[in-house]
Amino acid sequence: MTRTTIHRFINAPVAVVFDTVAHIGNFSKAIPEIVNVEILSDVRSGVGARFRETRLTKGRRTTVELEVTEYAPNKRIRLVSDAGGTIWEMSFTTEATSKGTDLTMVMDAKPKNLFANIVAPLMQGMIQKSIERDMDAVKVYCEGLARD
């Protein structure tokens, strides 16, 4: 298993930050690479919500299905995806501070086969850069909303 953890301080209220990372409609507005979202369940928010996200990265489209498996408003959301021979678990936690919000994103990659087990550690750097771009985009988006 590989784990990637990224932190950002965001100068915006915790409700704004959580609403951005916990609702795919808002998250897709914050992340420029997300070009399409398809809701796959009757549940649109919270535990049981499932959706398909398509990103355009370096001219290439990638699509993944995600499901919300944990949801504590303004505190934590956990999403799970089974793709490429790996179980991907992503958790966003938010914590209010006197000046804004601390946002932490943890991604665990749990390979399910030998090939994925070999490739996962090699992809760690690329995954970390991608998560950092997402977190930077969330920061810019949320701080923009807080200023309005």
Structure classification: alpha+beta
Tell me the helix content.
25-40%
Distance between the termini: 41 Å
Number of strands: 7
Describe this structure in words.
The protein is of the alpha+beta class. The chain contains three helices and seven strands. The chain has a seven-stranded antiparallel sheet with strand order 1-7-6-5-4-3-2, with helices on one face. A hairpin with a 2-residue loop joins strand 3 and strand 4. The longest helix is centred in the C-terminal third of the chain and has 34 residues. The chain starts with a strand and ends with a helix.
Précis, in short:
The protein has three helices and seven strands.
List strands and helices in order, with pairings.
Layout lengths: L1 E9 L3 H9 L1 H7 L3 E6 L10 E8 L2 E13 L3 E8 L2 E12 L2 E12 L2 H34 L1
Antiparallel strand pairs: 1-7, 2-3, 3-4, 4-5, 5-6, 6-7
Helix pairs in contact: 1-2, 1-3
Key attributes of the depicted protein:
single chain, 148 residues, alpha+beta, 7-stranded antiparallel β-sheet, 7 strands, 34% helix, 46% strand
